[in-house]
Amino acid sequence: MPNPRPCLLLLMLSAAASAISAEVNFTVVNNAADTIGGKRFERRIGADYSCQAMSTATNFIWDLLEQTTSFGFGTNTTTSERRDYSNVTLYIEPMDGADGVSAYALGNSLHISANYIGNYTGNVKKEFTGVLYHVLAYTWMWDGEGEAPRGLSSGMAEFVRLKAHYAPRMVGGSPGRTDYWDEGYGVTAMFLDYCNNIKDGFVAQLNAKLKEGYSRGYFRELLGKSVDVLWQDYKSKYQMDRP
Ligand SMILES: *[C@@H]1O[C@H](CO)[C@@H](O)[C@H](O)[C@H]1NC(C)=O
Ligand SMILES: *[C@@H]1O[C@H](CO)[C@@H](O)[C@H](O)[C@H]1NC(C)=O
Ligand SMILES: *[C@@H]1O[C@H](CO)[C@@H](O)[C@H](O)[C@H]1NC(C)=O
Ligand SMILES: *[C@@H]1O[C@H](CO)[C@@H](O)[C@H](O)[C@H]1NC(C)=O
User: Which residues form the signal peptide (predicted)?
Assistant: First the structure.
């Protein structure tokens, strides 16, 4: 019987706002303790570290998405409502990885493959932390009531990982040579980063809009240009920067 390890995150707000506090419980369950990857998880990463990282990452994501409830001088600076989960559980799973899936989130339950941890060459703790930021972003982000393109969601999650400085080195690949802004992962993350540099907080505002549904028009509403024009601008810029 695996032993879940609860770890409490308490967001302490200013005294004036003490009634509005968010509390999330994080739990880690190693369902793969008898596999090589599961043992490597215990040795190189551990439940205590994972729990702490989930808490740190959650604060980072709320901040990036401008969903931190902060009432400095009585001002509500929150851009959008965040998802209402009181607990998040991470499962280290003995997935066989045949379909290439190393990690996924289903609502507030996160799953990371022990085989992936077992097979990873390099700094496994850093890689694990990056994967954790990516899947945890799914937990907290809105998805346009399920209408958002999958590539946009994976790109937003990878944008979070990029901003947290846990992105893999090859993030973005060769955006100048891809055709689709919503190809996903690193390609879309780098494009979103470009958009976010045009207007700070763009991704947070896009996420806020995704609470109600999805439309390509959100890009024009927020940045004054269609997503296709922005993508062309981005590709031209990329090609100029990298002749
Ligand atoms: C803060 O603003 C957000 C977004 O407008 C809103 O959803 C939330 O309810 C507000 N919180 C309070 C305590 O007023
Ligand atoms: C965890 O959160 C889910 C969804 O918010 C809820 O259904 C479940 O009862 C919670 N579990 C515990 C142990 O609090
Ligand atoms: C978190 O876990 C602690 C200890 O198990 C429990 O007392 C508390 O009610 C939980 N909080 C939430 C929001 O589920
Ligand atoms: C590597 O992955 C394969 C299949 O995905 C798995 O059978 C094997 O046990 C893994 N190796 C380690 C050391 O975890």
Answer: 1-22
